[in-house]
Design goal:
Layout: E1 4-11, H1 31-40, E2 45-49, H2 51-54, H3 57-68, E3 73-78, H4 93-96, H5 105-123, E4 129-132, H6 139-147, E5 152-153, E6 185-188, E7 191-195, E8 201-202, E9 207-209, H7 212-217, H8 226-235, E10 238-240, H9 249-261, E11 266-272, H10 287-304, E12 309-311, H11 313-333
Parallel strand pairs: 1-2, 1-11, 1-12, 2-3, 3-4, 4-5, 5-8
Antiparallel strand pairs: 6-7, 6-8, 9-10
Helix pairs in contact: 5-6, 9-10
Amino acid sequence: MKPAFLITIDTEEDNGWAKGIPCTTRNVAYLSRFQHLCERYGFKPTWLTNYPVAQDCEFVEFGVDLLKRNQGEIGMHLHAWNTPPEFQLSGNDTDHKPYLYEFPLDVMRRKIDCMTSTLEEKFQTPIISHRAGRWGFDEQYAQLLIERGYKVDCSVTPHESWQYCQGIPGGLAGPDYRIFPSRAYFCDPHNIRHERQNGLLELPMTIIPHRATLCRMLPDVINRYRSGRRLLKLIAPCEWLRPTRYRRAGRLIEVVKRAMLQKRDYIEFMLHSSELMPGGSPTFPSASSIERLYDDLEQLFEYIHSRFQGATLAEYRNRVLESRTCNREEMLVS
């Protein structure tokens, strides 16, 4: 069986990196082009959706259609600062963008319940796949997802640390994933770096490190300063399966080739929905940059489609479980 190609789209408001602007979802009008490209190559995106986009009627129509045709999956992407119920941690949570785990436990649970119920009501399907806002995931978060029936998470970014990314002033920093697994594993909700036999399947992002050992040995203080992070990128860069204005088709294909050499069972691509709209992100600010993005996507997908099989996150989890069943049956026969 071919390895799986997982496409994950953080489906969220426009230009979520900016501060002090209204929350709009104009990027929804630009999603069909990407969906059509995926379908042309036999790929099925997982649209990890946050609360503002779930309120957009055009997106709901888009999502219902792709689910009806079995051409993708709707998952959950929780931005804690704009998901009900409202609970202010600072004077301006919208600008500070706190991690979900900075909120009291009961508020965390209510936000997860609200987001899940909203998506299940809008799309009339169980929601079982998830990615945390700002990659902010921990044990308490994992336990609440399991409690609510989630089966897949894809918040882990191996070889990367987000500890320089703070939530509210004086609050908690982002997670450090530098020594987390790079491959799929069922995570222990009491220590999400560790594996157990079943439960919540963690699908870490496809990130290929250069000099990973050196990166782990460097003092943490280097990662706290912008100049230090720039130094890290020069001496120990990590290549994501994620397009940017600098990470073009050639570099993306090189990531895929290295993943193949490592005999990975899946590769995971990510993009933000707002990056599909001109001016919807700092990454692709113009119509011409969007056209360059699609040129790169065409080349990347052309390379991948004969070597990988497209799957949603839920489909890949089913594949993992089926593989386990087959292995057990083979062991019993032998």
